[in-house]
Amino acid sequence: MTVKELIEALQQCHPDAQVFFSVDFESSEGGPIAVEHEVMWRREKGDTEHPGKVYLHNNKSHFFNPDGTPTDDNFMLT
Prior knowledge:
Blueprint: H1 3-10, E1 18-22, E2 34-38, H2 40-44, E3 53-57, E4 75-77
Parallel strand pairs: 1-3, 2-4
Antiparallel strand pairs: 2-3
């Protein structure tokens, strides 16, 4: 992931969200390759105030589109 890709992905997140690094020790990718903004389930429960949490992943093998296909980009809204 380049700095430009990371910035573009983070710009899709709430500016007040806390950032965490989610490490997959089995991954050989190294640094961050995907950004997850965990906010959808809060919205579904009616919480529009919480900014959600942002996770920087070094593996995106578990990121899937609603139709079950793997996601191709660096950002996932969950």
